[in-house]
């Protein structure tokens, strides 16, 4: 199963949500464009980050290997002290530029998503006001309140804390794999050996996480509904001495909600730990084979350092996918709950 298929299974509601509210999203094209350009700059600078360290290892710390074929000639005759200064300054410059790009990326998307979700919340509230009394008699008011406030806020939060880092990591993965293939195709292919193990784990847990997240949101809505309805009728509840009965119902629903939260966290944590083991296996393979190539003078020590740095960062999308699957699944469940209301036609 390919990556797009497993991702679409993990968050099927997000695509429908975006299509439904596209007329609201489209006016934010300028902010989204700025965010996209900053994202591309962030990825490019991230790819360049380990190269100053390669220069330091190959031309400053290991000068005795000046006759190696794996060590390019253009910098071989430079003064090591000058190269060291230039490499250190470059590290600071790349990090500063990437921080600036990340800032504009995050801020632009935050403003755009805030504007969009504010309008979504307004549309949802107005639509609820137009729905019939029959619909409101069947629906629980507390659950509707959660959809207007909690679900809309969760959608906005996930855009910043999950969707954006995931897209950034995936683009970084593609760029780093291309550079690794350019450096040494054998080592690059070896670094991808463990990827099927990750996708097996991801596809196994993503659907279960999404199902648990949907059940969690339903229970949270039930808890809010029970609290809102009992407090709204508190005079009648006290007059009939129903406090203990409502408290027992609330406690039971609250306990169910807690169980769903724990199950979602347990599944996400299991996926993350599985990914950690897979990454360790990939790193060990690359380090072993890369060291052999250095001994054979097929690569320089700096090349292996770049590979290990890329491997660590290239697997971040894997880690992020595992980490953010739960959040994206919760956002999908929230999006589905909002669309369920919006697609209900007023009588």
Automatic annotation (TrEMBL):
<dbReference type="GO" id="GO:0140359">
    <property type="term" value="F:ABC-type transporter activity"/>
</dbReference>
<keyword id="KW-1133">Transmembrane helix</keyword>
<feature type="transmembrane region" description="Helical">
    <location>
        <begin position="81"/>
        <end position="101"/>
    </location>
</feature>
<protein>
    <submittedName>
        <fullName>Protein tyrosine phosphatase</fullName>
    </submittedName>
</protein>
<dbReference type="InterPro" id="IPR039421">
    <property type="entry name" value="Type_1_exporter"/>
</dbReference>
<feature type="transmembrane region" description="Helical">
    <location>
        <begin position="158"/>
        <end position="181"/>
    </location>
</feature>
<feature type="domain" description="ABC transmembrane type-1">
    <location>
        <begin position="34"/>
        <end position="330"/>
    </location>
</feature>
<keyword id="KW-0472">Membrane</keyword>
<dbReference type="Pfam" id="PF00664">
    <property type="entry name" value="ABC_membrane"/>
</dbReference>
<feature type="transmembrane region" description="Helical">
    <location>
        <begin position="275"/>
        <end position="295"/>
    </location>
</feature>
<feature type="transmembrane region" description="Helical">
    <location>
        <begin position="29"/>
        <end position="48"/>
    </location>
</feature>
<feature type="transmembrane region" description="Helical">
    <location>
        <begin position="187"/>
        <end position="205"/>
    </location>
</feature>
<dbReference type="GO" id="GO:0034040">
    <property type="term" value="F:ATPase-coupled lipid transmembrane transporter activity"/>
</dbReference>
<dbReference type="InterPro" id="IPR036640">
    <property type="entry name" value="ABC1_TM_sf"/>
</dbReference>
<dbReference type="InterPro" id="IPR011527">
    <property type="entry name" value="ABC1_TM_dom"/>
</dbReference>
<dbReference type="GO" id="GO:0005524">
    <property type="term" value="F:ATP binding"/>
</dbReference>
<dbReference type="GO" id="GO:0005886">
    <property type="term" value="C:plasma membrane"/>
</dbReference>
<keyword id="KW-0812">Transmembrane</keyword>
């Amino acid at each position: 199963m390919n990556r797009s298929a497993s991702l679409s299974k993990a968050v099927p509601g997000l695509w429908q949500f975006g299509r439904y509210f596209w007329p609201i999203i489209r006016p934010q094209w300028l902010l989204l464009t700025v965010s996209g350009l900053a994202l591309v700059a962030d990825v490019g600078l991230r790819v360049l980050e380990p190269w100053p360290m390669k220069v330091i290892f190959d031309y400053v710390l290991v000068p005795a290997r000046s006759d190696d074929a794996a060590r390019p000639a253009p910098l071989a005759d430079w003064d090591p002290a000058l190269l060291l200064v230039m490499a250190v300054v470059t590290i600071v410059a790349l990090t500063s530029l990437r921080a600036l790009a990340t800032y504009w990326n995050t801020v632009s998307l935050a403003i755009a998503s805030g504007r969009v979700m504010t309008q979504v919340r307004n549309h949802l509230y107005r639509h609820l006001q137009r729905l019939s009394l029959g619909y409101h008699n069947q629906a629980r008011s507390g659950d509707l309140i959660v959809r207007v406030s909690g679900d809309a806020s969760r959608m906005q939060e996930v855009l910043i804390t999950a969707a954006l880092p995931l897209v950034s990591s995936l683009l970084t993965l593609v760029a780093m794999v291309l550079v690794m293939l350019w450096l040494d195709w054998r080592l690059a292919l070896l670094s991808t050996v463990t990827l099927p193990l990750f996708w097996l784990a991801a596809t196994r847990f993503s659907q279960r996480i999404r199902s648990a997240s949907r059940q969690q949101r339903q229970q949270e809505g039930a808890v809010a509904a029970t609290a809102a309805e009992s407090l709204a009728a508190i005079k009648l509840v006290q007059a009939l001495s129903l406090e203990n009965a409502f408290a027992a119902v609330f406690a039971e629903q609250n306990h169910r909600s807690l169980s769903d939260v724990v199950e979602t966290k347990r599944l996400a944590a299991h996926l993350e730990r599985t990914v950690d083991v897979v990454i360790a296996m990939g790193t060990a393979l690359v380090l072993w084979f890369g060291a052999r190539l250095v001994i054979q003078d097929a690569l320089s020590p700096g090349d292996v350092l770049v590979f290990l740095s890329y491997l660590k960062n290239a697997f971040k999308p894997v880690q992020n996918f595992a980490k953010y699957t739960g959040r994206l699944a919760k956002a999908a469940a929230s999006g589905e709950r909002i669309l369920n209301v919006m697609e209900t036609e007023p009588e």
